[in-house]
Amino acid sequence: MSGSDEDAGRAAPSKRADARRNKETLLDAAASVFVTSGVHAPVRDIAAEAGVGLGTIYRHFPTRADLIIAVYRHQVEACAEAGPALLASSATPHAALGQWVNLFVDFLVTKHGLAAVLHSDDAGFDTLHAYFLDRLVPVCAQLLEAAAAAGEIRSDLGAYELMRGVGNLCIGADSDPRYDARRLVELLIAGLRRTD
C-alpha cells in the first residue's frame, strides 16, 4: 500500500467520525431547543444553537419529522448508555439511580413534545415507543437491581413500574410553571430507600 493509499484509508474513518460528531452536536442542539421552545421551534434556532448553517441541518434531516425522530432515538441512546457509566462512576448504586432518573426526566420532558408531533403517524410512534422500552427498561432494571443488592433500596419495584411512575409525574411539567415534576420525582426516588 502506498503512502497516499494509507492516508486515504485514515482520512475516511476520521471523516466518518467527524460527521458522526457533527450530527450528534446537531441532535444535542435540537433537543436543547425543543426543551426550551418546543418541537415547532424554528430550524434557524437549532442551527444557531449548533453553530451551523441551515443547509447543514437540512442535509442531515430533510424534514422536521426526520429531525424529531433522530432526536428521539439519540436521546434514548444517550439515556441507555448513561446507566452503566453512572453505575461505574457514582459513589453508590442509589446515587447512580438518582442521576439516571434525572436524565430520564430530561428526556421525558422533551419526549412529551415529540410524542404529540409523532402521534400523527401511529405506526411510526408505536415503533419508536417499543424501541424506547427495549432500550431503557433493561438499563433501569440494572440500576434498581444494583441498588437493591447493595441494600440501599427496597427490592419490590420493577423497572417498568418505576419508569411509568416517573413518566406520569412528568405529564404537564412543560405547561405549568407552578408544577415541579423534578421535585416530586426526587421524593419518589428518596422513598425507595430501605428503612430497616
TrEMBL record:
HTH tetR-type domain residues: 20-79
DNA-binding region listed in the record: 42-61
Pfam family, one: TetR_C_43
Key words, A-Z: DNA-binding, Transcription, Transcription regulation
Coiled coil region boundaries: none
Record keyword DNA-binding present: yes
Name this protein carries in UniProt: TetR/AcrR family transcriptional regulator
